[in-house]
Design brief:
It is a single chain. With 516 residues, the chain is α/β, with parallel strands linked by helices. It has 3 domains: 63 residues; 149 residues, Alpha-Beta Plaits (2-Layer Sandwich); 255 residues, EAL domain (TIM Barrel, Alpha-Beta Barrel). It is built from 17 helices and 17 strands. The strands form 3 sheets. Strands 8-9-11-12-13-14-15-16 form an 8-stranded mixed barrel, surrounded by 5 helices. The chain has a 5-stranded mixed beta sheet with strand order 2-3-1-6-7, sandwiched between helices. A two-stranded antiparallel ribbon has the order 4-5. Strand 6, helix 7 and strand 7 form a beta-alpha-beta unit. It is elongated. The mean pLDDT is 87.
């Protein structure tokens, strides 16, 4: 075929192939009626274009699908990163982002946000008594209840453990307090888990944001108010005040100083006599620790012992008290004519009771100092043994086998019942001073104390009454048949030199006037 008679379909075919190479897969060539070799090539090119288009469409759909999956995975990861796995609430990261956004809105003229922090009261007891599964279910129920007291625009977050937060954008203090009170109310209602009934009361702190405040400062202030509520009592709402922050800073400073006080001879021991009520014979002494602060003076144990527990220094404190007081007892036994049944009563924390080496430590001290085991009484609170953990029970049984006396302190203020105490290796019960406060004038109080005394005796235990402050109280307890007690009526806690002087003077206390 000459150039003049060139088939025009060839040019069309070449053009179509060029378009295909550019990715124009929808390009097609209309076959001619000739049905010759050129048409065969055109048909082949059309088929190729159709197959390429189908492959490309499939590829695009697959890419779109994978892109959607990746986008969803990213959203899921973002949600996981911003939410609490157990409760489904927002987590700390999401809360901080929400606070920053709300504070930025306030800077632009909107109402300020309010932050409510909640810490469940005695939640550790739930885990200890019923297990962590029950604890997790309680946290999930708490989350659901808190979600039920807020608006859709509000945020409920779990910060970790048993601590929760509610962020309220654009509110007044009145609205914030209404939400806080509703939260306190719903958390005060018991939670039923199968056959268990659990209360999840909370301590609550409230802080309304200030202009120019950042998220960290708002969280710190709300946290400070919440801890002020927890220190004041349980199921309390406290609104942040600047003085609270100052108090918290002082507490932080005191925590630092307390760690050094244990090793720098700033702690001192006082000894309060325990008396046989029938004769006023001194049966022993209870050891009470004080902190002789170089600036603040003598600090009572109620101030720094909870702090020692909070910062993890209670173990060192307990060991120091045990060693120092047993050394004092060993010295008294060498220099004073003490009765063989004279006993040193040492308070032991729940933390120390869980130490695996406690029994060996006590045994070594008694052996090295030459003190008979029966001269030592370990005083523990009801809450320290309420869970009856394996380590605690091992410690109590081993101490009892060693010959050390075990006494339950502050009986009547915690969880124990007489039947419960009968199952423990306990020989003595110290009845809390609160039962004696109204002994003289509250109708029926004397009979109530008498009934408690009879129950203790029926359980085969010895009762010791603390907080005896008047002659009338001592006489009434004596008439009821109570064997022993202690209190300001007999003697205040005394430093070692004064206690030595008292024990040197006589085995019997001479009480002439009531304590003020």
């Amino acid at each position: 075929m000459s150039a003049d008679n060139k088939d025009p379909r060839l040019a069309v075919l070449v053009d179509s192939i060029v378009r295909l190479s550019r990715g124009e897969l929808s390009s097609r060539i209309e076959p001619s009626s000739a049905r010759d070799e050129v048409d065969a090539v055109i048909t082949g090119v059309n088929l190729l274009a159709e197959e390429l288009e189908q492959v490309y469409d499939q590829f695009e759909r697959r890419v779109e699908s994978r892109t959607a999956m990746l986008r969803q995975a990213h959203l899921d990861l973002m949600k996981m990163a911003m939410s609490d796995a157990l409760t489904g609430l927002a987590n700390r990261v999401a809360l901080m982002d929400g606070i920053e956004t709300a504070l930025a809105g306030a800077q632009a003229g909107a109402l300020p946000p309010a932050l409510i922090l909640l810490d469940l009261d005695s939640f550790k007891t739930v885990n200890d008594r019923f297990g962590h599964d029950a604890g997790d279910r309680v946290l999930q129920e708490v989350a659901a209840r808190l979600n039920g007291v807020v608006r859709e625009s509000d945020m409920v977050a779990r910060l970790g453990g048993d601590e929760f937060a509610i962020l309220l954008p654009e509110v007044t203090m009145d609205v914030a307090m209404q939400v806080a009170r509703r939260a306190l109310q719903v958390l005060g209602e018991q939670i039923q888990l199968d056959h268990l009934y659990i209360h999840s009361r909370a301590s609550i702190g409230v802080r309304l944001g200030d202009p120019g405040q950042n998220a960290d400062a708002l969280l710190l202030d709300a946290d400070t108010a919440m801890y002020a509520a927890k220190r004041e009592g349980r199921s309390i709402i406290k609104v942040f005040e600047p003085l609270m922050l100052y108090t918290r800073q002082l507490r932080s400073q005191m925590a630092t100083e307390l760690r050094g006080a244990i090793t720098s001879n700033e702690l001192v021991l006082h000894y309060q006599p325990v008396v046989e009520l029938a004769t006023n014979r001194v049966l022993g002494v209870e050891v009470l620790v004080r902190w002789q602060h170089p600036v603040r003076g003598l600090i009572p144990p109620d101030t720094f012992i909870p702090l020692a527990e909070e910062i993890g220094a209670i173990h060192d404190l307990d060991r120091w008290v045990m060693l120092t007081s047993l050394r004092q007892l060993a010295e008294w036994r060498r220099t004073l004519p003490l009765d063989d049944d004279f006993q040193l009563r040492v308070n032991l924390s729940a933390v120390e009771l869980k130490q695996l080496d406690l029994v060996d430590h006590v045994r070594s001290l008694l052996r090295d100092l030459g003190v008979p085991a029966q001269c030592l009484v370990i005083e523990i609170t009801e809450t320290a043994i309420v869970t009856r953990g394996e380590v605690e029970m091992y410690s109590l049984l081993s101490l009892q086998k060693l010959g050390v006396g075990i006494e339950i302190d502050d009986f009547g203020t915690g969880y124990s019942s007489i039947s419960y105490l009968r199952e423990l290796p306990v020989s003595m019960v110290k009845v809390d001073r609160s039962l004696l406060v109204d002994l003289d004038h509250r109708p029926g109080q004397l009979e109530f104390v008498a009934a408690i005394l009879q129950l203790i005796r029926a359980a085969g235990l010895e009762a010791v009454f603390e907080g005896i402050e008047t002659k009338e109280q001592a006489d009434q307890l004596r008439e009821l048949g109570c064997a022993s007690g202690q209190g300001y009526y007999f003697s205040r806690p005394l430093p070692a030199p004064a206690a030595t002087e008292l024990l040197t003077a006589s085995k019997f206390l001479k009480v002439t006037v009531d304590a003020p």
